[in-house]
Structure formats: C-alpha cells, structure tokens
Design a protein that fits this description.
2 copies of one chain form a homodimer. Helix content of chain A is 59%, strand content 8%. Chain A has 8 helices and 3 strands.
Chain lengths: 186, 186
DNA sequence: GGTAACATGTAAGCGGTTACATGATTAG
DNA sequence: CTAATCATGTAACCGCTTACATGTTACC
C-alpha cells in the first residue's frame, strides 16, 4: 500500500467523505459551505487527491452515474478512518497562516492622506461585517448538526464569527477616534 | 520603464523601505516584527523583489558595506512612493485567505473520542494565548509609533490581539460545556 | 574559540490556482 | 431555449518555501 505522504488538503478530502459528501463535486461544495473560512480547495486538487487516497487504500470508489452523467462516489475504508484519526491526534506544528492583503494595506496606510486611510478602514470593516453575516446565516444548520452529535462544526463557525466581530469592533473604535491615527490631533 | 506587474509581496518590500528598513535583511526582519500576523516573506523572495523594484525605478540601491561585510541599502524614489499610494488606494478585491490546519482539525474533531477532542481544543486555545501574549509584548513600540504619527501599525496590531482573544473566549466557552460537543449530554 | 546575528543570494521543488476542455441534467 | 448546476478532469503556470552556499562581525 506504501501510502504516499498525505498533505493537509488530502486529509480535508478524506475528512469530508465522512460528512455526507460522496463525489468529488460534493466535496468541493461542502468545503465551500463549511470550512471556507479557514481552508479552500479547488477542483483541480480534489480529483487527483481522491485518486491518491483510493490508491493508498483509504477510500474505495465506484462509478455511480446518474443517467448518462458520469459520477464516481467514494467511501472511507477502516484504514481511511484510522488515518484520519491518526492525523487529528498527531501532535505536530500547526502553523497559523493568514495572508491578508487588506491588513497589509491598512498597516501601510500612514502613507495616505487621512481621507483615503479612512476609506480603506471602512472597506475592511464592511468586508468583515459581510463575512460575519454570511457565517451567521449558516449557523442554524451547524446548530442542528450539534444536536445530532457533531458539535465541532459549530465551534469553528463561532470562531469565524467571533473573529470578524472582533475586527469590526476594532474598526469602530478607531474610526471614532480618527485623531489618534493622524498627525494632526485637533 | 515598463514596470513589470508587482505582486503583493513586492509592495510589502516597497512599503517597508519607507519604515526604516534599508537592506534586504532589515526588510525581512521588520516584516517578522510587524506584519507577521497577516503576512510573511522569505529571504528568497526579498532579494529578487528588491532587484525587480530597482529595475522598475521604484527603488534606488547603493552598496553600503560595513567593514568587509557586503550590504546594499535601498531608498524609495518618488515613483516608488507614488506606486505604493496607488496600490493602497486602488480598489480591488482583497480576498481574505486564512489557511489554518488547527481549525481544520477542530472541524473534524467529532471523529475523535471526547478526550482527544478536548486535548485538541486546549492546544488551539494555548496557541492563541501565546500569540496574543507575543503581540501584547510589542504593543508599547506600536503605541510609540502612533504618537509619532504612524497610527496604523497599532491598528493592525490590535486587530491581531483582538482576533486571538476572540478565539480564546470561544475555546473557554466550549471547554466549559463539553456536554454540548459530545453525543452523551449528561 | 564558538555561537549567534548580519548579510546576500541561487536552485529545486511543491502546493495550489487559473484556464481550459467536455458533456449531461434541471429549472425557468 | 437558455442558463444554472452537476460532474470530471488536464495543462500551464506562479508564488513561495526549503535547502543550500558563502562569508563577516559581534558577543560571550
């Protein structure tokens, strides 16, 4: 079986096959609806990843076309379930990697005149407000899952919401004391 | 001058040359001390980036060895300053990209038994506590800069702190009601 | 005398995205 | 009839990291 080393995205695919997502297409869509806040994945990754996982014996796939539309569904094997748990419990560095152009721009905003700087800050606030609203909208679904025994999606969802609300709060605080951000206090 | 299109990391390099960072080494170090929370950059990026910016006429470099130790320092040109401001005010998509393995693991943690899931949650809380402490430690410096007219580094720093505190809060809330995360409430 | 910090750079490789290509089915 | 959605895949490219290579200076 000589399982090729799996990268995080492979584990995401492996993990999603246990949450109702059966085809590559569904996996991609489920990622978009659930962990998009802290992970993304593209179709060009999903399909090779599924092939890799099947080869390694962690998933078994079978063709399940609907009409003439091709379709292949996957199921996790015992080995696959074990591999996922091993990964989840493996204590390894979990580097926190955020790449946020908006933050970078904000950091350098002292190079702008106050009006432009203020506009940028407003954009950042708006972005987090929108994102928080989107996350709030899917909360009922996560709460339902929590009642059914899957509480962790709700946990990560709440972290996402808390994050964006924290950003909005800081934005508001600074927007109301603009003087402290510019060279001309009064 | 046919300025080759610049990517965000190029603008980071360009931006840092106005904040006291003069050599490639200093730029890398300054990034580490300031915007590491939402952007990173490696030496293998910095030096080619500097060459590119100089070629485009946005920076001028001159050799400034210290003793026999080679060293090249850069200054921003008027065109460079203008290019930075243009970028900062350019309204473009500012996608928010977080890739956080710890969050992914937490999302899938219902596949674990409660003990292991709890351990994972504790790890995430600890990580954010540490990160918040690190950011708190550099706050005085940012406050000093704010008094000198550069308020935006303090703003982004506070966002980083607020983020990690929000995560810690959510962790604590869920750690104290573990029953809601498992299938056996009582 | 040794380690850490200062300083600059190249080469190889990897993970990931964009764009492309193809085609079926469903809903309006 | 048309657009959106379902569904799977490949090829080219890009940004970035890791590892490597080299040498100096400061500090203990």
């Amino acid at each position: 079986m000589a399982s090729a080393t799996l990268n995080p995205s492979d584990y995401v695919v492996l993990g999603m096959t246990g949450l109702g997502a059966r085809s590559g297409y569904e996996i991609k869509r489920t990622v978009e609806l659930s962990i998009r806040f802290f992970w993304t994945i593209s179709p060009a990754q999903v399909y090779p990843s599924l092939a890799k996982l099947e080869k390694a014996g962690l998933l078994t796939g079978r063709d399940a076309p609907q009409g003439n539309r091709q379709r292949r569904v996957y199921e996790r094997t015992h080995e696959g379930a074990q591999a996922l748990r091993d990964w989840l419990t493996r204590s390894e560095a979990m580097p926190f990697e955020l790449r946020d152009i908006a933050m970078v721009k904000l950091f350098f905003a002292d190079a702008l005149d106050p009006t432009d700087a203020h506009r940028l800050l407003a954009q950042v606030r708006l972005r987090s407000e929108e994102r928080a609203a989107i996350l709030q909208a899917i909360r009922p679904e996560a709460e339902e899952a929590a009642h059914a025994g899957n509480g962790h999606p709700l946990l990560t969802l709440e972290m996402g919401i808390a994050y964006h609300q924290a950003i909005v709060n800081v934005c508001n605080r600074f927007e109301h004391q603009r003087g402290r951000l510019t060279r001309t206090p009064q």
